[in-house]
Amino acid sequence: MIFAALMHTYVRTLQKVATRYAPSRVLSFDIVHVFKTLQLINDKGHVSRENLCKELELGEGTVRTLIRHLKMHGMIESSNAGTKMTKKGSSLLSDLLSSLPSETRISKCKITLGKHNYAILIKDMSYAVKSGIEQRDAAVKIGASGATTLLFKDNRFLIPQTNYNALKGDEELAKQLIQELQPHEEDVIIIGTDDSSRKRAEFAAKNAALITVLSHEKH
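Above: the chain's sequence. Below: its structure in token form.
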């Protein structure tokens, strides 16, 4: 529970970055864009605004505001080479990734709605999931088709609040998720889905995962 409380605090920090400062306009980015920005900078070392616009599918003005907010919170800094992470930002992302350690793109499957699908794992937080509707709503909020939530128990992928193995008869997908996500008992797998955009499926999974961590104290 202590670990989960720390994760909640870290996601709350992302939420603060995605909060507007009066009398500024309503923001066009959310916590998932903050998280993805930190991932991109961490992976590449430096990232240009142009690249962020492309990867986040956000306008130049929105990305400029996002960068400004991250700087205000001491997570990134800019140079002629582009935007890079500070020690504070790197530490925050590292801690978040200890709770969200693996993710992968998957093919169209029977348990999701859309053509494009993306899975992410949340460690040891099955207790934070009720019916899975909250995760679906978090995916829809960012414009995706939805999200499917699975709980890993007894080496099976269960629908929340049931003992039903959602991947029974789909051994290939079960094998892929085990190999690429490496789930353990009581882990959560969220699959974001969208018909038209691979990136939106990814953002759906990540937004749903972050909302799950953020809301765990309610359960």
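The mean pLDDT is 91.
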